[in-house]
Amino acid sequence: MRDHQSGFDLWERREQSVLRIVPYVSLALATALSLLSDHGSAGRVALQLGLSAATAGWIAWMATLHPQWPDRPRVPAGVYYPVLICLLGTLISLNPMYGFAIITGYVHAFYLRPRVRFVGVFVCAALAALAQMGGPGGVDGGSWPLYLLIFAVNALMSGGICLFAWRGDEETQQRKAIINELAEANARLESALEENAGLHAQLLAQAREAGVHDERQRMAGEIHDTIAQGLAGVVTQLQAAEQARARDADWKRHLDIAQQMARESLAEARRSVQALRPQPLEDSALPDALADVASRWTALHGVPAEVSTTGTVRIMHPEVEGTLLRTAQEALANVAKHAKASRVALTLSYMGDLITLDVRDDGAGFAPDQVAPTAAGGYGLTAMRRRVARVAGTLAIESEPGAGTAISASVPAVPVGDPA
Fold it and tell me: Which residues span the membrane (predicted)?
């Protein structure tokens, strides 16, 4: 686009340079021919030379030295062109050879307004016909038809040439305007592309930060759901072993349980770092994994935990099953810490496009709206909500002091292998 614009500008400059010298060349040629053909008095020759110099000076002052003046058609062009025609007409009346200089009148008719240009062309055609008839003395009563014929030929030829020239000039101006508009559009497009590149980089940075934040949240949830709970269980068993040893009871059993829990916590920590699915789901379906988790929890805390399944069991996406299993583990951990329950029931329901896990206990209960996320035990509820929300699920908690607690997690039933 810029190359085309440069080409047009170069061609226009060359054309303007040629048009600037045409008046002087034509006037000099006409003056030379008039001097060679006119053998009149010295005063007549001096008058011709003086008018020629005045015409050249008028053109130089109005069109060459101040090229912007004729472009203002209301005043400068309305003064410049009539004076120019008067000077050329006077020269032709003195010597018909000055008809060669009339080309300046045709060219400078461009300075007039479009509706007046043809008037200037017809006046120039009349002066050219007068010069071709030998000047004013060559036109008498019998030669008027010939003069009118010559005028008509000149008017048609010069008018047609000027018309094509003016149309070409208009097309050139339109083409330049289109090129300028396209150049502006390209500039805006480049600016928009640069802005989009900046926005893209910003979005990438935000996405990277969001990914880091999500990964931190995931690791925090995994640590809370696996390592922290496992270590808490280890501490509990070691304390129980210490107390049993003081009573000479079965303290070795507590130590064995603590060792087993420590190994499981270490394995879960490694799985969390590697973003693998929970170990109970590796070799078992979700209902069996829940039953195993509940059995281990019952053996550890001595509180019965029953698991029931409704609907047709289907293998779901690992994220869905892992979310439900971790939710059940966290819910049981909260029961062990706070509920002082005598019975826990877990219900896994397969319902069309939803899977629901309900965990109910008959413990002390609490007021859900009064539990802060940073309070003891509060992070577990927050982690459960985040974990369930990550798979587009919902978590509902119903509880009140002295009436037990019911936690219900509902997640989409996304089958295994579904990219969603």
Answer: 18-37, 49-67, 79-104, 116-134, 146-166
- Hey, which CATH number is domain 284-420, 1.10.443.10, 3.20.20.80, 3.30.565.10, 3.30.70.20? 3.30.565.10
3-state secondary structure of 405: strand
CA distance 164 to 159: 9
Give the tens place of pLDDT for each residue, 56-110. 999 888 888 877 665 555 557 678 888 999 999 999 988 889 988 998 888 888 7
217, containing H or E segment: helix 144-222
Chain segment 335-370, per-residue pLDDT in tens: 988 888 999 999 999 998 999 999 999 988 888 877
pTM score of the predicted model = 0.42
Task: Specify the residue for token string 């017809």.
Answer: 122
DSSP state, residue 277: P
For residue 162, give Cα distances in angstroms to 34, 73, 81, 369: 27, 18, 16, 90
Of 16, 321, 373, which Cα lies nearest the Cα of 217? 373
Question: What separation in angstroms does the CA of 128 have from each of 65, 102, 125, 262, 337?
Answer: 27, 7, 5, 116, 116
DSSP string covering 77-143, please? IHHHHHHHHHHHHHHHHH-GGGGGGGHHHHHHGGGS-HHHHHHHHHHHHHHHHHHHTTSGGG--TTT
Tokens (6 digits) for 166: 């003016």
Domain ranges in the chain are: 2-139, 284-420
What residues form DSSP beta bridges with 351?
354
